[in-house]
Amino acid sequence: MNFLRLACVTGLVLLASLSVPTAAGPSEDAEFAYKNGDYATALRLSRELAEEGDAQAQSRLGLMYREGHGVAQDYQQAVQWFRKAAEQGRANAQCNLGFMYENGRGVAKDEAEAVKWWRKAADGGVARCQNALGAIYATGRGGLSKDDLQATEWYRRAAEQGDITAQGNLGRMYEFGRGVAKDEAEAAKWYRKAADQGDARTQAYIGRLYRDGRGVPMDYQQAVEWFRKAAEQGNAYAQYALGNMLETGRGVTKDEAEAAKWYRTAAEQGEVSAQINLGGMYRDGRAVPQDDRQAVEWYRKAAEQGNAFGEVNLGMMYRDGYGVPWDDEKAVEWFRKAAEQGNALGEVALGGMYRSGRGVLRDEQQAAEWFRKSAEKGNVYGEVNLGMMYEDGRGGLPQDDEQAVGWYRKAAEQGDAIAEDRLGAMYQGGRGGLAQDEKQAIEWYRRAMEKRNSIAQTNRPTDTAYSLTMTRRLGAPKIDSEKECKKEILHMQFPKYPTKAIHDDVEGWVRLRFDLDGSGHASNVTVTGSHGGMFSGIAIEALEKSMFVEGVMRAGCETVFTFSLD
If one looks up domain 489-565 in CATH, what number appears? Predict the structure, then answer.
C-alpha cells in the first residue's frame, strides 16, 4: 500500500514537472505581444517596465510612439524614450535616436548629433547604423570629412551581417572604385547577395552589369530577367531599362508598345531617361500616336530636373516650332543650360544658333568656340561643323583645309554623311594635304549616298551641283490672319550663289514669315530653317535675296519650302 502511494506521488510530481512551463517574465511578454500586434498589452507592460528603468522597454515604447502603435503618433515622446534607453547603452535605441536627429522628428534636425548616436550604435554592432555611418562618410556630412575608406569599412561591417542596403552600397564602392580598388566582379558579388534577397535596387544594378558585360559575362537575357524583377517592384530605373531592352530587342523580342508602357511607368515616377525616350516616341509617333505637345511635355519634365538631354530636346522643339510656339530665344536658353553642363549636343546646338543669329546676335566666333567644345568631346556634329568653319575660314579661324580634313575625317569615321560628302570633295579637289584621288572621292560620295544624303546624290566628280530636299515631316501650318493659310511647299533655286553658301546645311526645312505690301512685294521678312534646325547665316542671306517671287506667297502666312543650288 505504502509502495503504491509513493509511486503515485512520484508520478504526480513527474507529471507536474513535465507539464508546467517555466513562467515568462513581463519583458518577454511585452515583446511577444508587440511582435504579434497586441499593442494594448505591449503598451501596458512596456510602460510599467520603462518607468522602472528597463532599457529594452524604453526602447520599445519609443518605437511605439514613433510608429503610432497602440498610441497616437508622437515624435517627441518617441525621442524621450529612445534617449532614456540610449543613455543606458541600448544600441538599437541609440540607432533610432540618431535617425530622429537626422530627420528632425521630435527634435531639431542635427546631423552631427545623429552621427554621435550612430557611432555608438555602430560600435555596438547595429548593422543599420553601420550602414548609416558609412553613408555619412561617403558624402562628408554631419561634421565629418568625406572619407571613402571609412565609408567602405562601415559598409563592409554591415554587409557582412547581411544588411541588404549595405550590400548594395558596398557593391557600388567596388563598381566605381571608391575606397577600394575598382573591381566590378566584386561589385556583382555584393549586388547579387542583396538581389537574391529580393532587393529591387540591386536587382536593377546586377541587370545593368549583365547588360553591359561588366563584372559578369554580357547576357541580355539575364539583364532582362533582373530588370523585370526590379521593375515589377516599382524600381523606376529598372522600368526604364526594361523599356529600352524591349525597344531595341535585346534579350527579348522587340516590342515598342511594351517599351512605351514601361517608359511611361518610369517617367511618371520622374525617371529622366524614360521621360526623354517617351518624348521621343511621341515626337516620332512610334507605338504611340504622334503628338508633339506630349513630346514637349515629357522633354520639359526632364529638362526641369536639370537633365541636359531633356534641355537639348526641349530647345529643339522651341527652335523648330513643334508642340510649342516657335521661339528661338527660348531655344537658346535651353541649349545654353545643356551646354553649360558640358553636354556636347547642347554645345553644337548653341553654336548653330550663334552661327545663324537665331535667338542671339550672330557671332561666328562664339559659334566656332561652341563647335570646338563639342568636337573635342567626339561629337560628330561638332566635328563636322568645326571642319566647315576651318574650310571657310570663319568664326575667327584661319582658312585651313588640313584642319577641315582632320575634323571631317573624324566625323566621317563615325558615319556622318555630311562629313563623308565633304571628305569626298577634298579628295576630288586634292585639298587639305590630300593627293587628288578620284577613287577615294567616289568611295566617300558612295558612303554618303548610301545614307540617302541628297547632296551626295548629285555631287559626283562629273557634277558638282548641290541639291537640298526636305526630309523631316512638316509641322502643321499656322494661321495668323483671317484668311486660312494653306500649307505651301515650294522648291527654289539659287544659281547666283556659290556652293559654300549652303554646303554646311545639307538637309532640312525652311520657314518663311513675311507680309506683302500694296504692290505685292514681301516685307517684314524673317527666314529660319534647319540642318537639324540650323542654317548658316550665309544660307539665310541667300534665301532672303533670292526667295521672293511675286504672287507665290500669301500675306500673313508661313511658307515651308525646299531649295537647291545649281
Answer: 3.30.2420
